[in-house]
Amino acid sequence: MMMASRGEGVKLASSMMLFSRSFSTAISRGIIAKEAVTAKAVECHGDVVRKNIGEFWVRGSVFGVRHGSTMSFGEKDQQKVEMKQTQSVAEGGDKEEKKEIASYWGVPPSRVTKEDGAEWKWNCFRPWETYSADLSIDLKKHHVPATFLDKMAYWMVKALRFPTDLFFQRRYGCRAMMLETVAAVPGMVGGMLLHCKSLRRFEHSGGWIKTLLDEAENERMHLMTFMEVAKPRWYERALVITVQGVFLNAYFLGYIISPKFAHRMVGYLEEEAIHSYTEFLKELDKGNIENVPAPAIAVDYWRLPPDATLRDVVLVVRADEAHHRDVNHFASDIHYQGRELKEAPAPIGYH
């Protein structure tokens, strides 16, 4: 009796173990199948299909370990796919950046050449905008201040010269750079205000808008030229930003209040520029500053000979400043006579 019951117990235990093993195997196969499908779906991400799917061999009876190893395998494959996609996008972006910008009208830009047939390499100005400076212009001409506004403009410019001399001393390349960043402001401000006035009053400007804007562009080209000669330091760049910001707003306000004062001040400012470039030439002649070859942009802009030097550049820039001096003193005289600029034809010169 005892033996019979013990035999039945052994059979019952064996049946339970067999059922448990079958149940465990079924669950294991189901999980493996599910994980295989998941891995295959991961490998198909981004239209990248892999023919060989890794086999999952997990030793042990713990499902958590099997599940963890399968997920890590899938995550690694997904990371590889994403990395490949990122690299392909980056490579495509680099290729797109190297492509030329298509014309808005769908027509390729015309090829501009020099007189000798060589390709024109400047986009900031064209061959028909170049000129030869008038070196015969009188450099010693000076407007003697007579009125209160004239004297105020004269001494204001003199006061501005003192800190400039103290800061730059004999570094005339950097000094010229600073001077041109300031000298390019008045023409733009005056031209803009006259432009708005012409639109507001429905009237012509007598050519003064073009004259003043050409002056601003000419002064900007001076700056672009000297940028090739003198490399400004970081604190000089900071000084330029500060001075230009202050001078722009001050001159804008001054031109609105009194155009005759504003133009007179620019006339005296150009007289100081002539003096500075004359000192620049003296240092070049003494050998204190190396007379390097003229920058290519200067050779093309002023139509200089191919063997031109820095001295030739300073000569033509000084002639430009003398021209601006005469234009602004003339504009101030027109206002002193109680007339408007449009009543006198603008002295459109060689710019």
From TrEMBL:
Mode of membrane association: Multi-pass membrane protein
Q: Where in the cell is it found?
A: Mitochondrion inner membrane
The record's EC number reads 1.10.3.11
Coiled-coil residues: none
Any one cellular-component term (Gene Ontology): respiratory chain complex
Which PANTHER family does the UniProt record give? Answer: ALTERNATIVE OXIDASE
**What name does the UniProt record give this protein?**
Ubiquinol oxidase
UniProt organism field: Populus tremula x Populus tremuloides
Q: What does the record give as the organism's lineage?
A: Eukaryota, Viridiplantae, Streptophyta, Embryophyta, Tracheophyta
| Gene this chain is encoded by | aox1
